[in-house]
Amino acid sequence: MVHAEASTFANGQTKAQVYEQVLEQAEALFEDQRNWVCNLSNASSLIYHALKSLPPPSSSVNWCGFYVLDPDPKKPSGLILGPFQGHVACQTIPFARGVCGTAASTQKTQLVLDVDAFPGHIACDSNSKSEIVVPIVKDGVCVAIIDIDCAELGGFDGEDAVALERMAGLLARSCNF
Amino acid sequence: MVHAEASTFANGQTKAQVYEQVLEQAEALFEDQRNWVCNLSNASSLIYHALKSLPPPSSSVNWCGFYVLDPDPKKPSGLILGPFQGHVACQTIPFARGVCGTAASTQKTQLVLDVDAFPGHIACDSNSKSEIVVPIVKDGVCVAIIDIDCAELGGFDGEDAVALERMAGLLARSCNF
């Protein structure tokens, strides 16, 4: 199997079809592999290329990746950058700050149509206009978050939220964090 | 500081200038951060966007990332996928196989002008035509490799090898693997 094909998405598919392919491919990739770094690396690629294959605003995705619980004992309530697709990003984020911190501390998906209107938003990239952040919760603990930015306002909707929450559940079950 | 700017490279620079920017930005990013997942994630983005900003063949880079020592005790001589930019990739690679395995086992940079001519080459992506793999060696142990693929033959030269070996040295010094 040539693995790159897993993240090649045909044009002209609906968002629902593309997310189904993401979830199927992810499930197959994770079947014999529980290493979280490996699985989050491939997952960020799958989701990024899926969104890029769709019409705007989805195709304007400009960052797609993960933050995980910071293992540094000096930062017990902090997130640290994990695998991603896109430009260089902020390395650490306190639970108390921004869209990512809010998703981690409340364990609730944050669907933000306009990041500039979100109190305390952390701008890693001034091109990002909207954002979705989905917590990955395992045994009651938020172990990581899925974070996706879009260069257009209103880049994400309820369909993204539902599909990414399924992905978060799959990652929680499939990885040793 | 908007971090995305660290991986924005002006057009019209030489390869030497672009790699200098990569190494300067990497050094600044790693100054207060020794987490290897975080640092390899940002490093893959820096190197990928640097090569994309150059004329062909460098701009035909189609995968840029890392494999690290597999912590699975059942795979004592194996590499596992780390952070990367590009399409979904092979999850595990034995030390004995392919360009990555050769770089890890010999601890020597592998500059491959035509991957199809390399014995035992592992094709994660049939679009990849040439490859460079640079070992990251810490205290005599190969802890990870930098792996970059190009969709053109002869995508890399001695200048890439020298600069990426400096990056490998910086990562070895800057990260707790």
Helix content of chain A: 25-40%
CATH topology of chain A: Beta-Lactamase
Please state the second-level CATH architecture of chain A: 2-Layer Sandwich
Classify the secondary structure makeup of chain A into a structural class: alpha+beta
The average pLDDT of chain A is 95
CATH superfamily of chain A: GAF domain
Number of E-type strands of chain A: 6
Taken from the alpha-carbon principal axes, the silhouette of chain A is globular
Q: Tally the helices of chain A: what do you get?
A: 4
Name the helix and strand elements of chain A from N-terminus to C-terminus, one letter apiece: HHEEEHEEEH
- Spatial strand sequence of the major β-sheet of chain A: 3-2-1-6-5-4
What quaternary form is this? homodimer
Please outline the major beta sheet of chain A: 6 strands, antiparallel
Radius of gyration of chain A, whole Å: 15 Å
Uncertain residue ranges of chain A: none
CATH classification, class level of chain A: Alpha Beta
Distance between the ends of chain A: 27 Å
Primary descriptors:
homodimer; 177 residues; alpha+beta; Beta-Lactamase; 6-stranded antiparallel β-sheet; 4 helices; 33% helix; globular
Could you characterize the architecture of this molecule?
- Two copies of one chain form a homodimer.
- In chain A, helix 1 (15-30) runs parallel beside helix 4.
- The model of chain A has no long low-confidence stretch (mean pLDDT 95).
- Chain A is 33% helix and 24% strand.
- In chain A, a hairpin with an 8-residue loop joins strand 1 (61-69) and strand 2.
- The longest helix of chain A has 17 residues, at 36-52.
- Chain A has four helices and six strands; from the N terminus they run ααβββαβββα.
- Chain A is α+β, with helices and mostly antiparallel strands and 177 residues long.
- Chain A has one domain (3-174): Beta-Lactamase (2-Layer Sandwich), CATH 3.30.450.
- In chain A, strands 3-2-1-6-5-4 form a six-stranded antiparallel beta sheet, with helices on both faces.
- Chain A has helices spanning 15-30, 36-52, 98-106, 158-174; strands at residues 61-69, 78-86, 92-94, 110-112, 130-138, 141-150.
- Chain A binds chain B through residues 2-8, 25, 29, 33, 35, 37-38, 41-42, 45-46, 49, 63, 65, 68, 70-72, 80-92, 123-127, and chain B through 2-8, 25, 29, 33, 35, 37-38, 41-42, 45-46, 49, 63, 65, 68, 70-72, 80-92, 123-127.
